[in-house]
Design brief:
mainly alpha, 71% helix, globular, binds pyrroloquinoline quinone
Length: 246
């Protein structure tokens, strides 16, 4: 009965764009993986060479699936201008010809850390939890509406700061990794900032109702969980090779 006295529930009014952005940023501030214990140890210089190599090998699984999830998003756009914008993301990772692009730069990071290409591309060392986290992200973008798929990429707003911290940490604490290997991270500072800004403008334009805005915030929280779970799996490390044997 009381709901009839006040049929408009003020809490369901849409946030203005400033409020929406600050709610999105609050999610990243609280849940982005820069706070994950594995990243904290990485930045302090506490990772062993084996742990750092395990991260590089497993993160490659994420990198190689980013253009796959972007292709799912691309297929949802209905204008040439938006498709062009998203196509550029795919090209950033895949390059426009052999020997270029982010995936190639990650392979070079691996080589700089003493991991040969075959070890990375075979996928043989990808941990089960990493597979699940990456599958979760790709399938989220495949199955959820465009607004949520784009909102999930907004972790990139926080990525440039993390790239700067990581570059400094690598230079200071892990000098055994050849300096050229860090080109991936240097390139992502600019690309991540640009991509994050573009995605934020789209989310602000599309999320007009409170329900849509809350879905966008939830999508970003989900993505933070993906990145967090990935690092949980990397931190735990290899399942016992003899596990499951009778
Ligand atoms: O190393 C990182 O911490 C990190 C984080 C993220 C991110 O925040 O999602 C991305 C990347 N790197 C990255 O390299 C990258 O290409 C990328 C694409 C996306 C995305 O969701 O579309 N995130 C990220």
């Amino acid at each position: 009965m009381s709901s009839r006295v006040n049929p408009v529930d003020d809490t369901q009014l849409p946030w203005n764009e400033v409020e929406l952005e600050s709610r999105l940023r609050a999610v990243s501030d609280a849940r982005y993986h820069d706070r994950h214990p594995f990243n904290v140890r990485m930045h302090k210089g506490d990772l062993s060479p084996d742990e750092l190599r395990r991260w590089i090998v497993n993160r490659f699984h994420y990198q190689r699936h980013i253009p796959v999830k972007d292709a799912h998003i691309l297929a949802k756009f209905d204008t040439p201008a938006l498709r062009r914008t998203w196509l550029r993301r795919i090209q950033d990772h895949d390059g426009v010809r052999d020997g270029e692009g982010g995936i190639e730069r990650w392979l070079r990071l691996g080589e700089a850390a003493g991991i040969d290409r075959e070890r990375l591309t075979s996928g043989a060392e990808v941990l089960p939890g990493v597979r699940l986290a990456v599958d979760g992200y790709v399938n989220f973008c495949r199955l959820r509406p465009l607004l949520e798929a784009v909102a999930a990429s907004l972790t990139e707003l926080s990525a440039p700061g993390l790239m700067r911290t990581r570059i400094e940490a690598f230079e200071q604490h892990y000098p055994w990794i050849e300096a050229d290997g860090l080109t991936y991270f240097r390139t992502r500072i600019e690309q991540g900032g640009r991509d994050g800004g573009e995605a934020l403008a789209l989310v602000k334009a599309w999320a007009r109702t409170r329900e849509q805005q809350e879905r966008a915030v939830a999508a970003l929280a989900f993505k933070c969980d993906v990145l967090w779970s990935l690092l949980d799996a990397v931190e735990r490390g290899e399942p016992d090779a003899s596990g499951g044997a009778p």
